[in-house]
Automatic annotation (TrEMBL):
It holds the Pfam family Epimerase. It comes from the Bacteria. PANTHER family: BIFUNCTIONAL POLYMYXIN RESISTANCE PROTEIN ARNA, NAD(P)-BINDING DOMAIN-CONTAINING PROTEIN. Residues 3-232 form the NAD-dependent epimerase/dehydratase domain. This is NAD(P)-dependent oxidoreductase.
Length: 310
């Protein structure tokens, strides 16, 4: 099958693209390479790999690429509250309008598997797990655009979405600004972190399990289509302070303190149930502990903030 991935050279795409190619899929990546990354260089060995430098908002390019595509994975997005705040117009046109364009052009037979975010749950009820039936109350521009894009995608018959937990782990197009990645980076290089509002909770998922869930969705599309799926680790609904304690197990010299004053501009606070995706037979392979070990090795190599989105 032929797969089109928009934004396929980004943090997730740089893991997902070679994963799909290794499984024998033909993959075309559309990316504007805004971070000057060379993360897909190793994919050039595959005859089934094609790459187009361009913008996912360019309707002419999308029309051409969709002519010969079975599956569409719209990864292209401005991701994270700080980056979206820096470019509100780009966020709207990339995260939502470009997805609308794909849905308008794609035929009913073409399948769409789209990642969104469980940050759409915003601020959950204390002690109550968010399921796919929980009302969506996004509290950032990023969350709002992804929730609206999900609605557009699921209105088609031939689609499904993955509401990803906060992703962590090493990637050829690294992001050090994601929470687990950031805290481990600080633990390795600064040996300390000051935590604001340490009781705020989130769910987490390793980037390679994100790639695996897309494979799972492709292989089980008929039984899964038409629904959103939370994708995270059931044993990793953790507060920031609990996350720090997990990192401390691997780096005992790591010191973390909660700030007595001040606040985190990111107010997300929720815990998530991943029962629906698990009921389809999907199993995660990467625990939080294994991912922390991986990041510690990775940050022996990486020593600056070049790999952050902002």
């Amino acid at each position: 099958m032929k797969i089109l991935i928009t934004g396929g050279a980004g943090y997730i795409g740089s893991i997902l693209t070679p994963t799909l190619l290794a499984k024998g899929y033909e993959v075309t990546v559309l990316d504007n390479f805004m971070f000057h990354q060379s993360s897909l260089a190793d994919c050039c060995q595959y005859d089934g790999f094609q790459v187009v430098r361009g913008d996912c908002r360019d309707e002419r390019i999308i029309k051409e690429l969709l002519k010969d595509t079975d599956i569409i994975i719209p990864l292209a997005a401005l991701v994270g509250a700080p980056l979206c705040k820096n470019d509100a117009i780009g966020t709207q046109t990339t995260n939502l309008d470009a997805v609308k364009t794909i849905c308008q052009i794609a035929s009913k037979d073409q399948r769409i598997l789209m990642p969104v975010t469980n940050s759409g749950y915003g601020i959950g009820e204390p002690g109550k797990l968010c399921t796919e039936e929980t009302p969506l109350r996004p509290i950032s521009l990023y969350g709002v655009t992804k929730v609206e894009a999900e609605k557009v995608v699921l209105e088609r018959e031939n689609s499904l979405t993955f509401r990803l937990a906060t992703v962590f782990g090493m990637s050829p197009r690294m992001r050090t600004d994601l929470l687990v990645n950031d805290f481990v980076y600080r633990a390795v290089h600064d040996r300390a972190v000051l935590v604001f509002e340490g009781h705020f909770k989130r769910n987490y998922i390793h980037i390679r399990d994100v790639a695996n869930v897309f494979l799972h969705g492709i292989e089980n599309f008929e039984q899964m289509r038409g629904k959103p799926y939370n994708v995270g680790l059931d044993d990793a609904n953790l507060s920031k302070l609990e996350l720090c304690a997990e990192i401390n197990k691997h780096l005992p010299s790591f010191v973390y303190l909660e700030a007595p004053i001040g606040e985190d501009p990111d107010k997300r606070d929720y815990i998530v149930s991943n029962a629906r995706i698990l009921s389809t037979g999907f199993k995660t392979e990467w625990s939080l502990s294994r991912g922390i070990k991986e990041l510690i090795k990775g940050y022996t190599i990486l020593r600056d903030s070049l790999y952050s989105n902002v």
